[in-house]
Amino acid sequence: MKRVGITDTTFRDAHQSLLATRLRTEDMLRIAPLMDKVGFHSMEVWGGATFDATMRFLNEDPWERLRLLKKSLPNTPLQMLLRGQNVVGYRHYPDDVVEKFIVLARANGIDIFRIFDALNDTRNMAWAMKVAKREGAHVQAAISYTVSPIHTIEKYIEMAKELVDLGADSICIKDMAGLLSPYVAYELVSRLKQEVPVPIQVHTHYTSGMGTATLLKAIEAGADVVDTAISTMALGSSQPPVETLIAILKGTPWDPGLSLELLTEIAEYFREIRAKYKAYEAPITVDVNVLTYQIPGGMLSNLIAQLKEQKALHLLPKVLEEVPKVREELGYPPLVTPTSQIVGTQAVLNVLLGERYKVIPREVKDYIRGFYGRPPGPIDPTVKKLAIGDEEPINCRPADLLEPALEKAREEIGELARTEEDVVSYALFPQVAKSFLERRARGISFKEERAAAIAAYIVANRKPKAPSVPVTTAALLQLSVSPWKLAARPSGGWVKW
Fold it and tell me: What is the DSSP secondary-structure string of 168-212?
C-alpha cells in the first residue's frame, strides 16, 4: 500500500461536464499558482472538447491557453485527453495531422497524453501512442469502460496487455458514464495490478452517484492514481470531489497528503467564479438514467436538445428505451464521443419517424462500413442490410485510407496562419479555425462582433413613424453610422424614430 496520486480535472473535464466547456483562460490563470502548490500528481488542462470550444465559443487560441497554463503551473505535470486518430475532433484524421498535433502539444507543454478510442480499437490508438512516446511524453493508454454482454473483465485485461505491448507507460480505466460500480472497480483494478506491469489510473464521473465509493474501492485494490475535481466544480456529471476523498483517506496508508485548507481556499474561488457561467450550468444531480440506459450526462443533454428542436420532448422516455436497442444492434459501442452521437441520433430518428431505420444518417452508415474502427461486437444483419446493402465493411485501419492533409491545409489557410499551430487548428476544424483566425486578423472580439450584429439588426428592422420633417438620405446615413441614437439630424430639424 502507498499514497495514491490525485489528478485534478477542474480545468478540462469538470467544466466541460458542468459548464458546457465555457471556462475562460483568464479564470484559470487567476487560481493556477495556488493549484500548483497543492501537489497534484497531474492536472488535466487540455484536449477533449476544450480545443474547438475555445475557438468556437470563447474566441481564444487553445495553443496560447496551453502555453499560459504551462507557465503558471511549473511544478505540476500537465495532462490532456487525446481521442486517438480522432485527435480532439469527431472524425479520423490522417497520420501527418495526428503526428504534427502531438509534436506541437508536447512542445507547448503537455507532459501526459491520455489516449483512447471510442470503440477500444487499439489500431486507432497505436500511431498516437508511438508519436507521443517518441516525443518523450508519458503515454497513458485508456480503456473506454462500458457494460454489455461482450465487455468483460477478461476482455479489458486482454486490451490492457495489448496496450502495454504498444508502449503504454500507464493504463487508465476511463469510465465516462459513471457506470463502474465499486466492487467491479475493485475486481478490475486488482486483476490489472496482477496482469500488467504499469501503473493503473481510474477516471469516473459522479453521474450515477457511485463516484466516490468507486474510487475508494479502486484505491483499496491498488489503483496508483485517481481523477477528482475541486468540490465546487465536482459532482453531477463531473468527477468526485477531491476534498471528500482526502478526508476519507486521511490517516490511512493511501493518504495523498494534500492540504484540505489549501483545497478549501481554491474551492471558494470556484464557488464565486461559477456565477459568471450560470447560463451554461448543468443540473447538479444524480441521474439514474445512466444506470438504466447507460447514457452519459453529455449524451442525455444532447438527446434533449434534439427533441426540443423538433418540439418532441415528450418522446424522451421512448428515446431512452430506444438507445440500448440501437446500441445492441450496432455491436455494443461504448457511448463516448463520437459513438454516443451516432447511436443517439439514430435512436431519435427511429422514434420521431415512427419506423425504425427509415432514415439512416451517413455517420451510422460509415460506422457500419468500419470507417470509425472495428465495432466491439457483430452488427445486426438486418440493420447492416438496410444501411449499406451488400457492401462489405473495410477490415483495415480506417486512417490507412486517408491521404496526408497537412500541406493542403497550409495552402488553404494561407497567410491567416501565423504559426504551425494555426495550420494544425485549421486542419482539425477548418470552418471554426478559419473564423477564429479571421477575427484575430481583424482584431475583433466576440463582444464587438455581437454589438455590430445587434446594431445592424436594429437598423434593418426599425420602422419610422410619421416624421415631423422630410426624411433625407443624409439622415438615414447618419442613423446607419450611429444606430444607438434615438434621433437623426437631417437638414432643418430632428426625425423621431
Answer: -SEEEEE-TTS---HHHHHHHHHHHHHH-SS-EEEE--STTS-HH
Which of 164, 80, 166 shows the shortest CA–CA distance to 123?
A: 166
The strand pairing partners of 5, in sequence order, are 225
The H helix count followed by the E strand count for the chain is: 23, 10
> What distance in Å separates the CA atoms of residue 25 and residue 64, rounded to the nearest whole number?
9
Confidence (pLDDT) at 302? 73
Task: Render pLDDT for 9-25 as a digit per residue (tens, 0 to 9).
Answer: 999 999 999 999 999 99
For residue range 450-496, list pLDDT tens digits in order: 555 556 556 666 655 444 434 333 333 333 333 232 333 333 333 33
DSSP structure string for 336-361? -TTHHHHHHHHHHHHHHSSSTTSS--
* Strand residue runs (E) in 69-136: 78-82, 112-115
Query: For residues 116 and 206, what is the distance between their CA atoms, to the nearest angstrom?
Result: 20
Residue type, 154: E
Rounded to whole angstroms, the Cα distance separating 199 from 169 reads: 7
315: left (phi over 0), alpha (psi -120 to 50) or beta: alpha
Block residue for cell numbers 478510442: 117
Rg (CA), the chain: 25
- The count of other CB atoms within 10 Å of the CB of residue 106 is 18
Q: Are 232 and 13 in contact (CB under 8 A)?
A: no
Report the C-alpha gap between 416 and 418 in whole angstroms: 6
Which residue from 207, 180, 205 is spatially nearest to 300, judged by alpha carbons?
207
* Nearest Cα to Cα of residue 347 among 366, 370, 330: 330
| Alpha-carbon gap, residue 384 to 248, rounded angstroms | 50
* 8 in Cβ contact with 242 (< 8 Å): yes
DSSP state of 444: -
Percent of all residues in the chain with a pLDDT value above 90, rounded to a whole number: 81
Q: Are 83 and 50 in contact (CB under 8 A)?
A: no
